[in-house]
Amino acid sequence: MQGGGGKGKGGQKKGGSSIADLLKPKEPWERTEVVMQNLILVENHRRKVGSAILEDIEISEMAKALWEAPFAVLSHDKFENEDPVFTYANKAALDLFEATWDELVGMPSRKSAADEAEAQTDRNQILEAAAESGVIRNYTAWRQSLKGKRFQIKDATLFNLETPTEKKVGQATTIYHWVFEDGTEGGPAASPPVESTERPSDEEIKRAEESVQEQADLVRALKEEHGLGNDDEEVQENVALLLRRKAKLEALQRRLVAAEAAAAAAESESASPAA
Fold it and tell me: 114 with 152: CB under 8 angstroms?
């Protein structure tokens, strides 16, 4: 009986472990605590920054969409911890910092900057400024990956995270552009390599031009029809978006010029008489 009871117990444990494995979330964004945290982040981005962090996404799909977003998103538990640690990083952020979820989440966020007095001071000043004002836009700073690779973040926004009761529980940042020391760029606001000679289609350029014009009209309307000024957050946010759209249009135009120059050179070479 004792031996049979032990066997039965062992079999039950094996079965329970299998079910637990099946029910265990496969990705961080599937975890309940991460989903709840994402909802706070998304709502604070809307209130502090003044726009949706992602457009046309159902709330039920937000956690996955945020995880897969092309820009980096991170948060840490400032206000809750004297030495804040990262509490969230989406896939783009993990790739940027050359880390896994388990390596980055829970790590002191100060380690994202070089362990030098100047770098840490600059970082702390930005954090404190955001803590006081609620949001800092379009800031630039040097950071480093867990493997020691240095890069400069650009077009970044830092904002406070608050619960529905307005308790401050952390800060989050979105990063749309980064540049490594060797000049390599990344992020959705980065310019395509200038040396590319692939000619963009006329439709690509037309869409980019229309996108710039649409955003420029919106900024103009905010100022002329709504009476907002350059110091208003809504204007600042939409100007930042306008600059990103202009940068993409300029990148396409550079590619067009490079492609036409390459085509002209090739035609000239083929037309030259053989020696």
Answer: no
- In b/e form, how buried is each residue of 80-92, taking b as 16+ CB within 10 angstroms? eeeebbbbbbbbb
Q: Other C-beta atoms within 10 Å of 141: how many? A: 19
What 3 state SS string does 162-199 have?
ECCCCCEEEEEEEEEEEEECCCCEECCCCCCCCCCCCC
Alpha-carbon distance of 198 to 187, in angstroms, equals 20
Cβ atoms < 10 Å from Cβ of 7: 10
Q: May I ask the CATH class of domain 28-186?
A: alpha beta
Q: Nearest 5 degrees, angle CA 179-CA 182-CA 188? A: 25
Residue 78, C-beta contacts closer than 8 angstroms, at least 6 positions apart: 84, 109, 127, 131, 168, 170, 171
Q: Calculate the CA 17 to chain-centre distance.
A: 36
Place of tokens 């309307």: 221
Q: Per residue in 224-249, is it b (16+ CB within 10 Å) or e — as a string? A: eeeebeeeebebbbbbbbbebbebbb
Is the pLDDT at 188 greater than 50? The verdict is yes
Say if residue 265's pLDDT is above 70: yes
256 burial class (0-12, 13-18, 19+ CB within 10 angstroms)?
Answer: middle
Give residue limits of the domains in the chain.
28-186, 202-268
Tell me the pLDDT tens digit for each residue of 64-106.
999 999 999 999 999 999 999 999 999 999 999 999 999 999 9
- Over residues 210-220, mean pLDDT: 92
H or E element in which residue 121 lies: helix 117-133
Segment holding 138, helix H or strand E: strand 135-144
- Model pTM score: 0.64
